[in-house]
Amino acid sequence: MRCPYCRVGDSRVLDSRDIDDGAAIRRRRSCPECGRRFTTMEAVSIVVVKRSGAVEPFSRDKVVGGVRKACQGRPVDEDALALLAQQVEEAVRASGVCEIDAHDIGLAILDPLRQLDEVAYLRFASVYRSFESLSDFESEIRSLRSSHDRLIDVVATTEQEPVGVLAGRTTT
Ligand SMILES: [Zn+2]
What was the pLDDT predicted at 147? Predict the structure, then answer.
């Protein structure tokens, strides 16, 4: 790695450490020529393959841009969109691939978007999954409803337990 001060094309690594849970490495270097120190970062870059076959670097901004339209008029602020883009990037990185289809980015967006706002999710999913009729919406809404029911079940069972314990305590 070339020294950014004197441009000599050689440097010595003093220290390397993992950052971002191993997603990147930071290296402390020193220049044997001028003796100055500098830091470099190394991370796997994720490449997005578009339907046309063209490739471009993964960009959180692009994710936000793709989701923003679906969130119009919804109570979703820029911070929430930025967090969603981060979750999408983390999901992609966690899958361990360095090349991903643009279509699969859409897939990685669906889950966090459903947690964020269900109306925005329905809008996004209708475009992404090319809903063609009302019944496509109906079945998606049905699956949203059933995941609500599951959630209510979980809340109900977790609430019941402490009540049971409490009841046991009062009887003794
Ligand atoms: Zn130097």
Answer: 83
Q: What is the pLDDT of residue 54?
A: 93
| Ligand 1: centre distance to CA 73 (Å) | 54
How far CA 38 is from CA of 24, 30, 76, in Å, comes to: 17, 6, 40
Q: If you measure from the C-alpha of residue 41 to the centroid of ligand 1, how many angstroms do you get, rounded to a whole number?
A: 18
The answer to whether 5 and 35 have CB atoms below 8 angstroms apart is no
Confidence of residue 19 (pLDDT cuts 50, 70, 90): confident
Tell me the per-residue pLDDT of 72-126, one tens digit each, with 9 for 90 and over.
Answer: 999 999 999 999 999 999 888 888 788 999 989 999 999 999 999 999 999 999 9
Sequence-ordered strand ranges (E) for the chain: 12-19, 24-30, 37-43, 47-49, 55-57, 99-101
Ligand 1 centroid, distance to 12 Cα (angstroms): 11
Q: Of 57, 61, 95, which is closest to residue 78 (Cα–Cα)?
A: 61
For residue 17, report the distance from its CA to the centre of ligand 1, in Å. 22
Compute the 3-state secondary structure of the chain and give helix, strand, coil in percent, each to the nearest 5: 55, 20, 30
Adjacent-strand bridge partners of 150: none
Q: Give the Å distance between the CA of 13 and the centre of ligand 1.
A: 13
